[in-house]
């Protein structure tokens, strides 16, 4: 396998619109970023994280050290939760404005980095709120510089233009996508992932798997999004079991992190459709539900629906997990069951009914999927028409394990 011929300690630059420092030891590149701050006249920054990630990963030790060495002042907002809210975004923005922050540093997984992206916008649009941003009440054209220090291998948010937040009072979980929130710099260092609990290792990796499942099959798909999808599945199938059995395996973390990054680039190009559009209502209604778990519970039913329209693509993309498919529509049931079996084998055995959802929730979830701001755009990208009965059927077929 050629992967053994790559020096995982060679920190290279993964170039997309974001300059991403990638590899074991990449966190040391934050020193270069502070030099860029100084060159740009940035003397004050706000750091956004959750209560744990920035400290337990060791990222903060380096970040604080290099900020102090350059004399860059900072303030920390560390109240971000999984499935972050517009209330948290507003709180962090207020803190940043009072401090006079000129840039935003997000340390963590998708939740802190998405929050950082949102705050970067609102620091420029001081008369706006997080809810107004996520309900599409205005279209931002600018944001403060964003630095994304990633601590999970799933979201890809460190290299893309997307962010997500929940408006709790409306049970909305919209997404935004603006060019102004591509991070200027990102750090992807596998060393920061070794403390990830097994469940988070699973859930974040399945997020990446869903990114490419959708990006390779939207109506906006391209050879690029499909190529990245194929490599993402190959890497996940190879290295997820290794990371689960040995959390300290830097080689496995490296390739799961690389899979996550290229999956982020894949859906930045190919966009998303059913699985994300239908998961957002799940974790909007139950904010404690991990995003990746919600996606995993929906994935088999989504594949079953879209496979007849995208059989040639998914048969090739999923070859490492479901070998031997011919790429014909009649295999939809086979691949759906096999993917579900693989998820169970990896350790994700829950379905929607295990998380408290019932048949009675399907109409509400369907309504939210079809009315939450931005989710209609995702549904419009699906390879089959996203009619109400299709959405309902996916939810129903995700309540319990396939028979």
Characterization of this structure:
The protein has 403 residues and is an alpha/beta fold. Helix content is 50%, strand content 10%. The protein contains 15 helices and nine strands. The strands form two sheets. A seven-stranded mixed β-sheet has the order 1-2-9-6-5-3-4, sandwiched between helices. Strands 7-8 form a two-stranded antiparallel sheet. Strand 1 (12-15) and strand 2 form a beta hairpin. The longest helix is centred in the last third of the chain and has 27 residues, at 291-317. Belongs to the iron-containing alcohol dehydrogenase family. GO terms for molecular function: alcohol dehydrogenase (NAD+) activity; metal ion binding. Keywords: NAD, Oxidoreductase.
Secondary structure: elements and pairs:
Elements: E1 12-15, E2 19-22, H1 30-40, E3 44-48, H2 53-56, H3 59-69, E4 73-77, H4 86-99, E5 103-108, H5 110-122, H6 130-134, E6 146-150, E7 162-164, E8 175-177, E9 185-188, H7 198-215, H8 223-245, H9 250-270, H10 274-285, H11 291-317, H12 332-346, H13 362-371, H14 375-380, H15 388-397
Parallel strand pairs: 2-9, 3-4, 3-5, 5-6, 6-9
Antiparallel strand pairs: 1-2, 7-8
| Count of distinct strands | 9
Radius of gyration: 20 Å
State the oligomer.
Answer: single chain
Strand ordering within the main sheet: 1-2-9-6-5-3-4
Number of domains: 2
User: What class do helices, strands and sheet pairing give?
Assistant: alpha/beta
Flag low-confidence runs.
none
Name given to the CATH architecture of the largest domain? Up-down Bundle
Overall 3D shape: globular
| Average pLDDT metric | 96
Q: Would you identify the CATH H-level superfamily of the largest domain?
A: Dehydroquinate synthase-like - alpha domain
Domain Alcohol dehydrogenase iron-type/glycerol dehydrogenase GldA: 19-190
InterPro entries: ADH_Fe/GldA, ADH_Fe_C, ADH_Fe_CS, AdhA-like, Alcohol_dehydrogenase_Fe
Keywords: NAD, Oxidoreductase
Family: Belongs to the iron-containing alcohol dehydrogenase family.
